[in-house]
Amino acid sequence: MVEQGIAGHLSQNPEAAPVFKLNLRRTHVVEDTFRHLSSVDHCVFQRELLVQFKEELKPTLVNKRDFFINVFDELMHPESPREMFMFNDHQTLAWFPAKKYFMFGVLCGIALYNHNIINLPFPLVLFKKLVNVKPSLEDMEEFDPVIARKEFVDAYIDYAFNKSVEQVFGEFKRGFFKKYFMFGVLCGIALYNHNIISLPFPLVLFKKLVNVKPSLEDMEEFDPVIAKSLRYILDDYTSEDFEDFDNLDITFTVNWDKRKVDLDSEEKGKPVSCANKKEFVDAYIDYAFNKSVEQVFGEFKRGFFKVCNIDVVEFFQPDELRDVMVGLEYTDWDVMKQNTVYDGGYSDTHPNIITFWEVFDELTEQQKKLFLLFLTGMDRVPIVGITKVRMTVTILPNASDLHFPEALTCHSLLLLPNYSGYPTKTTLKNRLLGAINHTRGFWKE
Q: Residues 184, 302: contact at Cβ < 8 Å?
């Protein structure tokens, strides 16, 4: 099986016996995680992960599972203050941003992230290089007016602002994108430790990890509106349509991630014609999924493969890799019912439990998935052991008919009030729907 292949290879390194331990504060889980990942030698990434929260006496497997649930929940939330990703219009899928900000070197990035201006007495050429604009004589005139009057100017400028600082500036620029490197490391550690994670990216992310070229189908998944327009141009526009250019007004200048972009750098505003419409569509896809994210995705990929063996990962098809990393949709609800265990006075013959399963069976498929999310913190299940989703149901202490069910995601534990008010089924259904629609089983602090 594919999951056994990757799991076995990732675990067979004899040097991986020592553990990689994270000591975290629950209230600062992302900040503490990135700080730890930044401070350790990369070789420790390929060790079994242990997570210990400072409020607890020792690390547990429960902590590791809950860690991955909560850290990715914080990082991938569309309204996360970290703003690491762009989202499609419905905020169902994420992608890497085209904009290059957050980290301006590590220290400069911290200042920028906290909205602090800083004393940065660099010439404009620093910022040119961050946006890949070639240094010029004007930059030397700003930095050293005397040297700028010398002969051999081009060679001097190239050495002064490029060759002489190539390694140093490369490290500085790497710091600019460090957050994405750490995100890649975190994804790799999750895979290495056999934990599925919430990673709401389109299939194109996994395509790029295994070197499969993005296509129009990927845009159809991420942004159906843009894809429909591109498909229409490609399949339906005729030469007669393009001859009436005044009405169409389609050019190689497009908007992506709130930025206006010229897909043809040599001819700004280049019109789209019947002859070049395929070139236009290909350029749009290439910009959206490759060029606009080249450095950001490059750092993510570099971090990911600091943990995972690239030769093993590239063996998989993109959809197989996605299933291993984010899990599969769960639909075998009868098996979940059979695997459920009861505690605290409940049994499978208890009237409240019988009513609970009557209500559950009447839920829509989407509502059942919301319940799984409420119960486990994930709306998908691992590809390994998909039939072993095991729920424990116990009585919520000191609860009345007004209380909602609660859940401990770390244990897949449902705390169900023993409802008694008539009609019991209506009460239980209303409280259960209220819980799964407005809360996620909570992470006990």
A: yes
Asked if residues 310 and 290 have their Cβ atoms less than 8 Å apart, the reply is no
Name the pairing type of β-strands 94-95 and 259-262: unpaired
Q: Are 56 and 28 in contact (CB under 8 A)?
A: no
Which amino acid is residue 75, in one-letter code?
L
Active-site choice (43, 274, 308, 410): 410
**108 catalytic residue (yes or no):** no
What Cα–Cα distance (Å) separates residue 408 from each residue in 295, 340, 387? 39, 15, 20
- Residue 104 pLDDT > 50, yes or no? no
Residue 125 CA from chain centroid, whole number: 33
Q: pLDDT tens digit string along 142-190?
A: 766 655 454 445 555 455 556 555 555 555 555 567 889 999 999 999 9
> What does the DSSP 8-state code read for residue 371?
H
- Contacting residues for 403 by C-beta, under 8 A, at least 6 apart: 396, 417, 431
CA distance 356 to 195: 30
**CA dist 163 to 158, 159, 183, 320, Å?**
6, 5, 30, 43
355-411, pLDDT tens digit by residue?
999 999 999 999 999 999 888 888 888 876 656 678 999 999 998 999 999 998 878
